[in-house]
Amino acid sequence: MSQNNIKKNWNDIFSKAPDTLKKMSKINSVASAFNSCIDSVVKLSGEEIYKLIKKEKLSLKNLENIEHQSIDSAADLLKGVFKCFTKGIAEEWTAEDKSVFDWMLINLGTKKMQTGGQAGIIANTLSLTDIKQVIVHSNALSELQASQFFNRPNLVSFDSDGTVKQASIINRDKASSIHWIIEFDKGDKLTIDGKEFICPKSNRFIATYDPPLFDFIIDKNFIDYTNSNKIDYFILSGYQALSSENNGVEYVKNSLPIIEEWKKASPESIVHLEIASTQDKKVRKAIALNLAPYVDSIGVNERETMDILEVTEQNKLFEECRKNPSSVNLFKAIYNIKNKLNCPRIQLHMFGLYITIQNKDYPVSPLANRNGMVLAATAAASKAYTGQLAAPSDILEACGQSVSDIGLNELNELSIYLQQPQLIEIGMGEYKGFDIIAVPTIIIEKPKTLVGMGDTISAFSLIGAR
User: What's the CA gap between 25 and 23, in Å, rounded?
Assistant: First the structure.
């Protein structure tokens, strides 16, 4: 089949995304935990980054001297921004010092606020579908934070008395949790000490100030409700902000009894763990070894794949992926991760391509999985194109746009490596006793935002597939 025919075939497959979206009305309930917050989204140009660096009197040597991947000062924050800008990567660092929070308020501002955190973003996005009930966990829910949730009656949380209410009208706590999402564009330039840096890929740096999340405060009302009502899907995240110096490993391990109770209460449910950029290696290792083996599905991007390789001591694969994050190398990585962690399903979302490896007896068929991944690719492209999925019609805004040549090329290389020629044509194949599903994506050249992209992908890929 020629490249043009392959692209036409995939565009025909993508044209079925509206049908997949309609089927989501059959889902009764999704619970999304544990982190929801306010995202303050800031788009910084290279020139604006330079001004902040100059204001803090930092040299190139200072910026490249990263002693820890946490934010104890404005200098630390700018080191993280500089690293992600120059490498075109995404990372999330935490700030626990109130003075850093105050600096960000003054110098970055809160001009554009929206619901943030994996749990919050996923819940907000899924509420735009016809899922009957989306239950969101929030460590803190002030009037300001609650108002960032969409005004949707199917999106609910809990007030101080434990009453289930529409999430957007709750006023439970005084404090608000704010995460700054600092975005930058591919091709933008930054000159420091006479050396020019060009951003290789549009991406973002996340600076998290979230005391309730650092202490992993869990709303008992959420736990009681999800233990006494049938839930179809549980989406888990929020561990990335934990510190091993503040009982982070224990907090991760303490989630296991919660998951066990969920599975008892809703035995047919699917529990998905969204792996996020976790800087504390001890916490990251605990997530990989103590949580991932006990859920039904995990989601990762390129960086998170390498993070797991690092803490599971798969050093050779780590170096291969770091030097060349191609579809073949990343497939080798997630295949090894799946086997090492014994997780029934793992999904990778990389630039231009999504790949899923799942057990043969997984409750979602390869075809349904592919359809969910196609819907996810459409929704993610729509989010990049519009800037935010804020209305039901936004989900399919990118429907009709062509899949990318980058994605098709990566898929072709993968199909050759796996000796599965049908993979390039229909996106489904087999490898060593597992089902393989791979889908090229729609790439928006100048995305208006990348915030919550991975969360959108994982939510629609899995939940849209059943």
Answer: 5
CA-wise closest residue to 116 among 134, 140, 99: 140
CB burial of residue 99 (10 Å; 0-12, 13-18, 19+): exposed
Do residues 385 and 447 touch, judged by C-beta distance below 8 A? yes
Both tokens of residue 37? 């917050």
Break the chain into its structural domains and give their ranges.
3-38+117-174+212-463, 40-113+176-210
- Strand pairing class (297-301; 270-274): parallel
201 φ, ψ (degrees, to nearest 5) = -160, 135
User: Cα–Cα distances in Å, from 79 out to 62, 69, 94, 127?
Assistant: 8, 9, 13, 37
Q: In angstroms, what CA-CA distances link 55 with 74, 107, 139, 150, 191?
A: 10, 10, 35, 38, 15
Q: How many residues does the chain have?
A: 466
| Encoded tokens for 253 | 């391990």
* CATH architecture under which domain 3-38+117-174+212-463 falls: 3-Layer(aba) Sandwich (3.40)
- C-alpha 312 chain-centroid distance: 21
- Coil, strand or helix: which one is 452? coil
CATH number of 40-113+176-210: 3.30.1110.20
In tens digits, the chain (466 residues) has pLDDT values of: 788 899 999 999 999 999 999 999 999 999 999 989 899 999 999 999 999 999 999 999 999 999 888 899 999 999 999 999 999 999 989 898 889 999 999 999 988 899 988 999 999 999 999 999 999 999 888 999 999 999 999 999 999 999 999 999 999 887 788 899 999 999 999 999 999 999 999 999 999 888 888 888 899 999 999 999 999 999 999 898 898 998 999 999 999 999 999 999 999 999 999 998 888 999 999 999 999 999 999 999 999 999 999 999 999 999 999 999 999 999 999 999 999 999 999 999 999 999 999 999 999 999 999 999 999 999 999 999 998 899 999 999 999 999 999 999 999 999 999 999 999 999 999 999 999 999 999 999 888 877 778 888 988 999 999 7
User: Does the pTM of the predicted model rise above 0.85?
Assistant: yes
Q: From CA 394, how far away is CA 426, in angstroms rounded?
A: 27
Q: Compute how many other C-beta atoms are within 10 angstroms of the C-beta atom of residue 12.
A: 9
With tokens 């200098």, the residue in question is 75
